UniProtKB/TrEMBL annotation:
Main location: membrane
Keyword terms: Cell membrane, Cell wall, Glycoprotein, Leucine-rich repeat, Membrane, Receptor, Repeat, Secreted, Signal, Transmembrane, Transmembrane helix
Record localization: Cell membrane; Secreted, Cell wall
Bilayer topology annotation: Single-pass type I membrane protein
UniProt family annotation: Belongs to the polygalacturonase-inhibiting protein family. Belongs to the RLP family.
Record protein name field: Leucine-rich repeat-containing N-terminal plant-type domain-containing protein
Short name of one Pfam family: LRR_8
Length: 691
């Protein structure tokens, strides 16, 4: 054979050997890990596609599994990423045999039962995200006894109850902890645990205040109570603190001086009282301070020389009093300001002119004065997009000056101020308007025809004023209500604000986004006259049309049947005559219909949604009858017209109802309302609500 041949075969051998090593390491996952994973999979109520030890023996290739590259006894599993896979069933102990596991993400599934105790004995675990499941029970101690490497814990949106783990303080690497939407408490003894959601109370355990590396503490939507303790001062690395929607009470501790990295503090919807702590109103790091819905009082004494970074300030729905301080205008980055629902008096300070970044200003429900001056000042805030001033400026005159300019205004809510005057000329400059609410004032005159030029307008409420004349035809030319092909730009979505609108019924709705409102035209309770233009049929994107309590006359146009999205139609208390058109049966989304107190006659259409409307919707019309009509000669429909009605009823309603049903059902599916498990529904709805 000779040297050359020997060398070649050596090379070949070495090559073979090399190949066999690398293919064996890429083939096999560690056999203990495979066993653990199979055990885990057996406890699930659902099958994960691709998880099959016969067809695919290397579990490192299974969906959602990440392995390291160790070669000694097969590759080790370091990550399990199985979020949003509709998993059901339980997690059993065998998961805890994956002793090299570093990250575990099982969020957004339907997993239930309690967590295996041994899960927290996993030495290497750094990230646990099991949010949005149905886990119950206490989170047993021992969580951080061994595994001090945990950095991220997300237990939100489950049904955990009982105490927070006692040994949290041993989780020294923890920088993100999120327990919101559970029923955890801090101080109740374990034997008081109830699995019922929101049934416990207790204070935040002191162990939390020893987590000095914590950067985020998010425990909103629980039932924690008692004061927020001074221990919070220990968390000097905190960047986000959210304790909103709990039952915390007492005064806010003056302990924020050491939290030099705190950017976001939200404590809204609690029962805090007293004044704003000195260390809060002097924080140079805070960007977002959200304290709405408490009982905080005193003056608004922010030190804007210190609070250089403040972007969003929400002090709404408290008991703050006094004037709006001049100094607030030195918070030059202020973009969202909510002071609504307090006891603030006086005029808007002149130097608000300097708030260049201001985009959202909510001042409703206070006792402000001098609307002319307020608008004169605010027009200098070029980015102003949402302006809510409801319930202020009582009995003042609406300033009409054509020189005011609000080019970026998207929402103006100036209702219930008993304002006198008419629709002001300066409104014409607000070409981006989406939402206009001037209801419950004493405004008169005509509704100007230039309203038709507001192509983004989709919510208009002018109810309960003294507008007269005819409804301008141009209202039916509003692009957004006709075709909806104008996309709506939300004024400020990166910081959550919620605002209220008042439906004519007096009900108050709270919205996080303008686009959450239904497209609405409400001209009720004015002195409008003339006929309802058949062109209203063009408003195919309108959901709510209210024209009640006016002097409208003529007949109800049959063309209203082309307002295919209409849900509410209120034409009551007018002088409408003629018959109710049978074509309205095509409105398959119509859920409320009122034509009471008019001069209508003939038979109420039968079938479709009409069978669901109560008799009182038709009261006060002498000539109107419902079922079993006694036909007087001139009111009896001719044979041919009756045949036509039957025909309409016959197929068009069928199509309308069927497509309505299909649409509704598919919407339900898309929005997550229809889910395999009925008990999931409520939770699904809250999820949508928060997105
Ligand atoms: C877990 O997965 C979900 C969905 O993919 C993701 O939104 C979330 O950020 C993940 N959690 C962590 C801690 O990475
Ligand atoms: C924290 O860890 C130490 C050991 O590192 C242990 O002795 C102690 O009991 C733990 N604390 C809690 C509350 O579990
Ligand atoms: C603050 O942290 C220190 C050091 O970890 C600890 O000794 C102290 O008890 C903590 N204070 C509170 C109120 O938890
Ligand atoms: C306001 O903040 C500035 C800058 O931090 C500081 O010098 C001043 O003393 C503070 N004023 C009050 C009244 O706290
Ligand atoms: C005004 O808004 C625009 C667009 O959102 C933004 O780019 C700009 O920075 C804002 N101006 C100020 C002074 O914040
Ligand atoms: C009309 O507005 C006034 C306030 O201007 C209010 O007191 C009254 O209740 C409102 N009426 C209706 C029917 O909405």
């Amino acid at each position: 054979m000779g040297f050359r041949g020997f060398f070649l075969s050596f090379l070949l051998l070495a090559f073979r050997f090399e190949v066999s090593i690398s293919s064996s390491s890429s083939l096999a996952c560690n056999s203990n890990d495979l066993k653990a994973l199979t055990g885990f999979s057996n406890c699930l109520g659902s099958v994960i596609a691709g998880w099959n030890s016969v067809a695919s023996p290397d579990c490192c290739n299974w969906t959602g599994v990440t392995c390291d590259s160790s070669t000694v006894s097969g590759r080790r599993i370091v990550g399990l990423e199985l979020s949003s896979r509709k998993l059901t069933g339980k997690i059993c102990e065998s998961l805890a045999d994956l002793d090299q596991l570093r990250f575990l993400n099982l969020s957004h599934n339907f997993l239930s039962g309690s967590l295996p105790d041994d899960l927290f004995r996993l030495q290497n675990l750094e990230i646990i995200d099991i949010s949005f499941n149905d886990f119950v029970g206490p989170i047993n101690g021992g969580m951080c006894a061994l595994s001090s490497s945990i950095r991220v814990l997300n237990f939100s949106y489950n049904y955990f109850a009982g105490e927070l783990p006692k040994d949290l303080a041993n989780c020294t690497s923890l920088h993100h902890i999120s327990f919101h939407r559970n029923s955890l408490s801090g101080s109740l003894p374990l034997h008081h645990i109830s699995f019922h959601r929101n049934s416990l109370s207790g204070s935040l355990p002191d162990s939390v205040f020893q987590l000095q590396n914590l950067r985020e503490l998010l425990i909103q939507d629980n039932r924690f109570s008692g004061p927020l303790k001074n221990g919070i001062a220990n968390l000097s690395n905190l960047e986000k603190l959210d304790i909103s929607s709990n039952l915390f009470s007492g005064i806010l501790p003056d302990a924020f001086g050491s939290l030099t990295r705190l950017e976001q503090f939200s404590a809204s919807s609690n029962q805090f009282i007293g004044r704003l702590p000195i260390s809060v109103v002097n924080s140079p790091s805070l960007q977002m301070l959200i304290l709405n819905k408490n009982s905080l009082s005193g003056p608004i004494n922010l030190n804007c020389s210190a609070m250089k970074n403040l972007v969003s300030l929400d002090l709404g729905s408290n008991l703050f009093h006094g004037p709006i301080p001049d100094g607030l205008s030195f918070c030059r980055r202020l973009t969202v300001l909510n002071l609504a629902r307090n006891n603030i008096k006086g005029e808007l300070p002149n130097n608000f002119k300097n708030l260049d970044a201001l985009a959202v200003l909510l001042l409703s429900n206070n006792s402000l004065e001098n609307i002319s001056s307020a608008l004169e000042i605010l027009q200098h805030c070029k980015n102003l997009s949402m302006l809510f001033l409801t319930k202020n400026f009582y009995d003042e005159e609406m300033p009409n000056g054509g020189n005011l300019q609000f080019q970026n205004l998207r929402g103006l809510v100036l209702a219930n101020c008993r304002l006198r005057g008419s629709i002001p000329q300066w409104l014409r400059s607000c070409t981006k308007l989406q939402l206009l609410d001037l209801a419950w004032n004493n405004l008169g005159g005509r509704i100007p025809s230039w309203f038709g030029k507001f192509e983004s307008l989709f919510y208009l409420d002018l109810s309960n004023n003294s507008f007269n004349g005819e409804i301008p035809k141009s209202l039916t030319e509003i692009q957004r209500l006709k075709s909806g092909d104008i996309s709506l730009e939300e004024p400020y979505t990166s910081f959550q604000i919620s605002f209220n609108t008042r439906a004519a019924s007096g009900q108050i709705f709270s919205y996080k986004q303008i686009s959450g409102l239904r497209p609405t035209l409400d001209l009720s309770k004015n002195m409008l006259e003339g006929p309802i233009c058949p062109c209203f049929g063009d408003l195919q994107k309108l959901h709510v049309l209210k024209l009640k309590e006016n002097n409208l006359s003529g007949s109800i146009p049959g063309s209203l049947s082309t307002m295919t999205n209409l849900e509410i139609l209120d034409l009551s208390h007018n002088k409408l005559s003629g018959e109710i058109p049978y074509s309205l049966l095509k409105l398959s989304f119509l859920s409320a219909f009122d034509v009471s107190y008019n001069q209508l006659y003939g038979e109420v259409p039968k079938g479709g949604q009409f069978d669901t409307f109560p008799d009182r919707s038709f009261d006060g019309n002498n000539g109107l009858c419902r079922g079993g009509c006694t036909h007087e000669s001139e009111k009896t429909p001719t044979h041919s017209s009756r045949e036509k009605k039957m025909k309409i009823f016959g197929w068009q309603f069928g199509v309308g109802a069927a497509s309505g049903f299909v649409l509704t059902v598919s919407c339900c599916f898309m929005s997550g309302w229809v889910l395999p498990k009925p008990r999931k529904r409520k939770k699904a709805a809250t999820r949508i609500g928060r997105i």
